[in-house]
Predict the 3D structure of the following.
Amino acid sequence: MTVQYRSYNSESQLEKRCDLVVGDRLNSLTDVFAFSGVPFPKNFQQVCKKILSRLFRVFVHVYIHHFDSICSMGAEAHVNTCYKHYYYFITEFSLIEHSELQPLKAMTERICT
């Protein structure tokens, strides 16, 4: 499986795309929890996997394009901790194909093992 990442010409384009990607998935997930006592829909796991796959793409973007800024703010350990928790969760429950994780493979091996 080959994953392609788009390049955006401006920050506003990127922000709009992030809002669309994350907002759309979170809205569909919150629809699931709108009424208590209602069973999970049959596609609940698929929706969660899609959200987590898209969140991985956010991590890729952050690590590739903003890591210098993160380090200069002294937030490297915090971002790495967020990523480690995310990585351990998705691998524990097999929520993302390992082939999708290739863009951060070297970094993941360094900080998660």
The chain has five helices and no strands. Helices lie at 11-32, 44-65, 67-72, 76-92, 105-112. The two ends are 24 Å apart (CA to CA).
